[in-house]
Amino acid sequence: MSAIGADVLAMRNGQQTRVASGGVDPSTVRGRWMSVGSSDHHDPRTAGTEAAAAAITGPDPTLLVVFCSGRLDPAEVLAGIGTVAAGVPLIGCSSDSEITSAGPGEGRVVVTALGGSGLAARTAFGTGSSGGQRAAGAAAAACVEPVADLPHTALLLLTDGLVGDQEEIVSGAYEVVGAGVPLVGGAASPHPAAKQTFLLHGDQVLTDAVVGASIASASPLGIGVRHGWRKVGEPMLVTRCAKGRVVELDEKPALPTYLERLSAPAIAYTDPVEFDRFAGTRPIGVRRRSGEEVRNVRTTELFLSDGWLSCTGDIPEGGLVWIMEGDESTVLEAAGDACRAAVDALDGHQPVGLLAFDCGSRRGVLGEDGSRTEVSRMTGQAGGAPLSGFYSWGEIARTQGINGFHHNTVVILAVS
């Protein structure tokens, strides 16, 4: 038998109504609700049906957000969801690992449903993101105009984690929505066995795409962003770089300069596997007006011989960067802090649910036990509201400025 998100029965208006375990009764929070259902059934159609049935616990479902294991057939998953929630706006993406209030897991379908009065949503998508990132981001952001005459709006974006220049996607969305609408979301991650990503929109399975959902609410929406990495030493000037390749820092070869600053072991200078193991907890922070944006650092045999660093995000030439480091305790602390910041941004309103976009690199640092602890830290700040999310290949959070693409970061959207 498959494991399905646990349900309990609550009494409302003299009738029994299914409410997801850990969820908030829709009748108690001004009519808005969020619930989460999950299933690890081996048959993808059945998994989609079970997860959707467990998620839809309140009236007037407005939006479904689906995180689907990359090893499942997404078309079959959508077919199963359609038997329960045909016509409900839907976005989603592939995932290596999924998150619910019960903890992290793999091989599942996780469906998050939002609905009730005072909540509206509209969706859109853009394709061709590998060559036209800015245009794809703008197309997905077109869903914002108009949603409803409600005072609070956020744009939820899901992108293809295998596509480069993700900052251009965020910039394209920003050109459409402007500074008044915050952006939040993450990049689809592939399952290691499948080695491919997909995006979901309505009943469509998309590749090389961006999907967006505009969420409008009568009550505040809060975003929390934390990474848990601390700066090491003085900043350095990026004196040469191109397309994710950092060639020089402070006019010196970037890779040995990075390793020397950290007193790295000798083998990290010559072995790309050992370099990546060492660098996994030592990313680079890029200075932005809103704070640091974290970038993963990697290398190859070619880059080792040339003295270059490879980063999975934009590092501007002429900009300032810091080497950063952390450990399990700082990564765990960041998870709780991000949730607390998102809830605090609700201005005293009770959260009905939280969506989490957590970098897959952080899961690599924490391991299985640490990842369970991390989710526990998140739920501890949720006040009993349900939590869902996935481990992404990049996180989106823009609350000020035009930038907003991150790595090694946890991003939380709180809905009230």
In short:
α1 (44-55) runs parallel beside α2, α3 packs parallel to α4 and α8 (328-344) packs across α9. With 416 residues, this protein is α+β, with helices and mostly antiparallel strands.
* Rg calc: 21 Å
Number of strands: 28
Largest sheet: 8 strands, antiparallel
Quaternary state of this entry equals single chain
Parts with pLDDT < 50 across at least 5 consecutive residues: 1-29
User: Between the first and last Cα atoms, what is the distance in angstroms?
Assistant: 35 Å
User: What is the count of structural domains?
Assistant: 2
Mean pLDDT: 86
What is the strand content? 35-45%
Number of helices: 9
Global geometry:
globular
Helical content, roughly?
25-40%
Structural class computed from helices and strand pairing: alpha+beta
Word description of this protein:
The structure is a single chain. This protein has 416 residues and is an alpha+beta fold. It folds into two domains: 7-226 and 331-415, no CATH class; 230-325, no CATH class. The protein is built from nine helices and 28 strands. It has helices at 44-55, 74-85, 133-141, 166-177, 254-261, 272-279, 301-306, 328-344, 360-380; strands spanning 7-12, 15-20, 32-39, 61-69, 90-95, 98-100, 103-105, 109-116, 119-127, 152-160, 183-188, 199-201, 204-206, 209-217, 221-226, 230-242, 245-249, 252-253, 284-288, 291-295, 297-298, 309-311, 320-325, 353-359, 387-392, 395-398, 405-406, 410-415. Strands 16, 17, 18, 19, 20, 21, 22 and 23 form an eight-stranded antiparallel sheet that branches. Strand 16 (230-242) and strand 17 (245-249) form a beta hairpin. Helix 1 runs parallel beside helix 2, helix 3 runs parallel beside helix 4 (166-177) and helix 8 packs across helix 9 (360-380). The protein is globular.
